[in-house]
Design goal:
single chain, 172 residues, mainly alpha, 9 helices
């Protein structure tokens, strides 16, 4: 995403319809990377829980190594999710449908990792697991996402005021 912004800065200021297309591209890149990282964290967490349940010690690095075994199916499934999400959120009136699908598909990473499914099959299985528990799952996901989204800026602000580090470095 940073490279896209840098390329646009080199070309010049984008205005009009080009700015809208650039915003959509930035949204697509940001959403894809965010959901990819979230999916990888969920997959690593699922792997760690399985290892702990079976009495084997596991650290963060080992959990991520286990999760990376199924990286391609995870990427494929997240790509389907992102394409659907972006298409629905670009048409403002379909945002409620996008939120509904996001909750239905929020278990896609554990399904890919633990059940070996990928693509549409993983999305269907996630929807099946959430079925009948949409409010419970949605509220847990919403609260977790809210805490994560608030924690980053709060930590960033604290680091700005409490350290001498450059703001550009803190952004990273």
């Amino acid at each position: 995403q940073w490279l896209v912004f840098l390329a646009v800065d080199l070309i010049g200021v984008v205005t009009g319809q080009g700015a809208g297309a650039f915003a959509v591209l930035a949204l697509l890149i940001g959403t894809t990377l965010t959901l990819l990282v979230l999916g990888l964290v969920q997959a690593a967490t699922a792997c760690a829980l399985v290892e702990i349940d079976e009495g084997r010690p596991v650290g963060a690095a080992a959990a991520y190594r286990l999760a990376l075994r199924r990286l391609r199916p995870l990427l494929r499934t997240i790509a389907l999710f992102v394409a659907t999400w972006v298409a629905l959120t670009l048409t403002t009136f379909l945002i409620p449908v996008a939120l509904w699908l996001a909750v239905r598909w929020c278990l896609l990473a554990p399904v890919v990792e633990l059940e070996g499914r990928g693509g549409v099959a993983a999305l269907r299985r996630s929807a099946g697991l959430v079925h009948g528990r949409w409010i419970r799952v949605g509220s847990l996901v919403g609260v977790s996402a809210g805490v994560a989204l608030i924690a980053g800026p709060l930590l960033g602000a604290a680091l700005i005021f409490l350290t001498e580090m450059a703001v550009a470095l803190l952004n990273i």
